[in-house]
Amino acid sequence: MKKSARVLVVEDEKSIREGLRDVLTFHGYDVQVVETGEAGLESILGGHFQLVLLDVMLPGLNGFDVCRKVRESGASVAILMLTAKGSEDDIVEGLSCGADDYVTKPFSIRELTARVEALVRRTSGRSEKSFRFGEWTVDPATLQATLGGETCELTPRELDLVALFVSEKGRVVSRRVLLKEVWEMAKVDEVETRTVDMHIAKLRKKLDPDGRLILTVRGAGYRYRG
């Protein structure tokens, strides 16, 4: 699964770009690297990548703009943002524009490869069987949800959330459980719990604008009632 995964690195700093290429290649990924936002956007829209490592601070078109344009195009590739250490604003904005996850610089190789592997595993190992989410029909193979003549594109992370909610229908799922099961995070901090809330907000906007399907249980988490 991992051996055939194609990964794009969009990073303007040469030492980091080449380091990421070497590390990911060593771990068996098929890696392509570019150094500008414009080149990254062109590569993403013209190629077939399972994952994009996208730096925030890029010359010209920055990482946020690239991410936003990718999602506006309907592309559902997984996006891992590379943000400045301690910059909560970068993290929040990255998640708001459609990123699936983030790592902060400077990052450890172990953390990076774990995040990459988790995203690739989830995008590559899903069931192909369609299922229902409320009145929507969700197709994991295409990362699409359909209702009547309407089609909604989902990010890999949004699909994971939908699948988990369906499997836990009627039960309260805490943010900690969501982070563990969907993000595969063992340690949780305030920024990461906000990560969950932001993804849920975006998912609701797409599939549950009336708030009938995903209920907030104050102080406990979320409950999908179907």
Topology (SSEs and partners):
Layout: E1 6-10, H1 14-26, E2 30-34, H2 37-46, E3 51-55, H3 63-73, E4 78-84, H4 88-96, E5 101-105, H5 109-124, E6 131-133, E7 136-139, E8 144-147, E9 150-153, H6 156-167, E10 172-173, H7 175-181, H8 190-207, E11 214-217, E12 221-224
Parallel strand pairs: 1-2, 1-3, 3-4, 4-5
Antiparallel strand pairs: 6-7, 7-8, 8-9, 10-12, 11-12
Helix pairs in contact: 2-3, 4-8, 6-8, 7-8
Essential attributes:
226 residues, four-stranded antiparallel β-sheet, Arc Repressor Mutant, subunit A, Rossmann fold, five-stranded parallel β-sheet, alpha/beta, 12 strands, 8 helices
Compact overview of the structure:
With 226 residues, the protein is α/β, with parallel strands linked by helices. The chain has eight helices and twelve strands.
What would you say this structure looks like, in words?
- The protein is α/β, with parallel strands linked by helices and 226 residues long.
- The chain folds into 2 domains: 2-124, Response regulator (Rossmann fold), CATH 3.40.50.2300; 131-224, Arc Repressor Mutant, subunit A.
- The chain is 42% helix and 23% strand.
- The protein has 8 helices and 12 strands.
- The protein has helices at residues 14-26, 37-46, 63-73, 88-96, 109-124, 156-167, 175-181, 190-207, and strands at residues 6-10, 30-34, 51-55, 78-84, 101-105, 131-133, 136-139, 144-147, 150-153, 172-173, 214-217, 221-224.
- Strands 2-1-3-4-5 form a 5-stranded parallel β-sheet, sandwiched between helices. A 4-stranded antiparallel β-sheet has the order 6-7-8-9, covered by helices on one side.
- Helix 2 packs parallel to helix 3, helix 4 runs parallel beside helix 8 and helix 6 packs across helix 8.
- The protein is globular.
- The two termini are 32 Å apart.
- The mean pLDDT is 89.
